[in-house]
Amino acid sequence: MSFKEGFLWGGATAANQCEGAFDADGKGPSVADAMPGGRQRFVILNSEEFDWTLDKDKYRYPNHLGIDHYHRYKEDIALFAEMGFKAYRFSIAWSRIFPLGDEESPNEKGLAFYDALIDECLKYGIEPVVTMSHYEMPLHLAKVYGGWKNRQIVAFFERYAKAVLERFASKVKYWMTFNEINSGLESPVLSQGLIPLTGADDFTNRFQAWHHQFVASALAVKIGHELREDIQIGCMQIYAPFYPLDAHPENQLSSQFKERAFDYFTSDVQVRGAYPTYTKRLLQEYGAKAPVMEAGDLELIKQYTVDYIGFSYYMSMATDVVGGAGETDFASGNLMNGVRNPFLKASEWGWQIDPIGLRISLNDLWDRYQVPLFIVENGLGANDVKEADGTVNDDYRIDYLKEHIREMHEAVLDGVDLIGYTPWGCIDLVSASTGEMSKRYGFIYVDLDDEGNGTLDRSKKKSFDWYKAVIATNGENILAD
Question: Where, by residue number, is the active site (predicted)?
Answer without folding.
Answer: 377
